Amino acid sequence: MGSCAVSRPAPAHHRQYAPRSPDPSGRPAPEGRADEFGGPAESHPEKAAHRAPFRPTGAGTMKLTTITNVSVDGVMQGLGLADEDRRGGFERGGWALPLVDEETMTRLGEVYGRADAFLFGRRTYEIFAASWGAMADPEDNPVAAPLHARPKYVVSKTLTDPGWAHTTVLAGDPAAAVRELKERMPGELQVHGSGQLVRRLAAEGLIDEMLLLTYPVIVGQGTRLFPADGPDGALELVDSRATPGGVTWQVYRPAGRPRYATEVLPRTS
Q1: Region Disordered: what ranges (predicted)?
Q2: What is the pLDDT of residue 60?
Q3: 131 three-state secondary structure
Q4: Pick from 8, 171, 190, 228: CA 20 to 30 A from residue 219's CA?
């Protein structure tokens, strides 16, 4: 969930990786104003949404799975702690944590445990690094253990000194960096949170599977997973279940473009 007891961070072992198609601007973010990618706040990756439909990637590449916790009204902002993310005047943080039951945590541990690597936007990476990454004994926690031990990739134009072990910075264009990463690695690459990154990956057709955890609450404000004017996409439901506490799990795979009604049928009296 992105929250835990805090202790001394792990030592850093990191490097920086630049994709073959670098970002053409290369401009650093103004101080104090960075988006999820660590770039200028004025840049909006979701505006690239109409460049490609939401579709699966080709065979033979690393499977990219997004895992997102959302409310019934689609909010994903500040779910863990009250002060986790107050952007835009958000005042309803910590809405998911009281609803997490034992089965949800067990299943989340299983999801994290099957990952071969993790991919983050900068903001989510820093939240995770300050919580899961700072646990004194991460090997004793089913979520913290894989997060600590396995490769972590963070999409950022400005992050140069990540403090979490086994972190690689993906510099330049996010889509190009992730596409190249998928082509050169086996297994499953998981994206937790990282809303702007998820929207960009969806727009570029780089998501292979989506796991949505929907909590029985209407938050009423905050950032939604998908924007009001984003790309469309059909989804195939692979699995659906609910925990005793009312958290529903839906696993989807992209299924091309959605079908729309071509005419309005007459009403029957």
Answers
A1: 1-60
A2: 58
A3: coil
A4: 190
Of 87, 85, 67, residue with least CA distance to 143: 67
The answer to whether 156 and 122 have CB atoms below 8 angstroms apart is yes
Burial profile 68-105: b = 16 or more Cβ within 10 angstroms, e = fewer: bbbbeebbbbbbbeeebbeeeebebbebbbebbeeebe
Mean pLDDT of 42-64: 49
Spell out the SS3 assignment of 68-83: EEEECCCECCCCCCCC
Q: What is the pLDDT of residue 80?
A: 82
Please tell me which residue, 224 or 269, carries the higher pLDDT value: 224
Which DSSP letter does residue 34 get? B
Question: Are residues 33 and 183 in contact, defined by beta-carbon separation less than 8 angstroms?
Answer: no
Question: In angstroms, what CA-CA distances link 120 with 13, 67, 191, 216?
Answer: 17, 11, 6, 26
pLDDT in tens, 217-266: 999 988 899 888 888 899 999 999 999 999 999 999 999 989 998 766 67
- Cross-strand partners of 205: none
